[in-house]
Design brief:
It is a single chain. By secondary structure, the chain is an alpha+beta fold. The chain has one domain (4-85, 124-206): NADH Oxidase (3-Layer(aba) Sandwich), CATH 3.40.109. The chain is built from nine helices and four strands. The chain has a four-stranded antiparallel β-sheet with strand order 1-2-4-3, with helices on both faces. The longest helix is centred in the middle third of the chain and has 25 residues, at 125-149.
Amino acid sequence: MRTIIDALSWRYAVKEFDPNKKLSKEQLGVLLEALRLSPSSIGLQPWKFILVENPDLRAKLREASYGQSKVTDASHFIVFAARKDLDEAYVDRFVALTAKTQGVDAASLSGLKDMAMGALRSRTPEALVEWSARQAYIALGVLLAAAAAEGIDACPMEGFDPKKYDEILGLEAQGLAAQVAVAVGFRSEGDAYARLPKTRFPKEEVVVEMR
């Protein structure tokens, strides 16, 4: 049985994807559900995951990604965007959904609303976007681990022009801002990076044990 350590040891940031190999509907569904289930501070989920399948849009995104082939060659391409519209109305929707999910009266969750509103009000609009971006990176980590567990290759990407991404995908009008992206699919046999050993510092250098 493949363990999570086996999966994480197998994965790497794929540089060349095989454009002829595609995820099945079921595989894509697992990845999208993993994103949906990702944790976030207070559970607010201040993000959107944009699954870009349109070839023309992906070609434009490739140009805005300094010509990186993985944008168009990978089976699927997902852009992680931070929400810029976090306000009391959004919190009310979240509290209402929580109440419905847990089968309780929304009034009983006043403490949850107060905590969420406190988190929003304590930050400037710019700081809120930065906070939302950090939450999106949590989801990115979940996706990378889920993909590895499923034997699906992935490559996280920061190497692109966020403003151009926002323009190409119409994110600004939706109150969103692109933060990071990930290409998912299957590695090309010609990707030399697949044969390189993983470079990681030893545990003693990265783990501090305070006993």
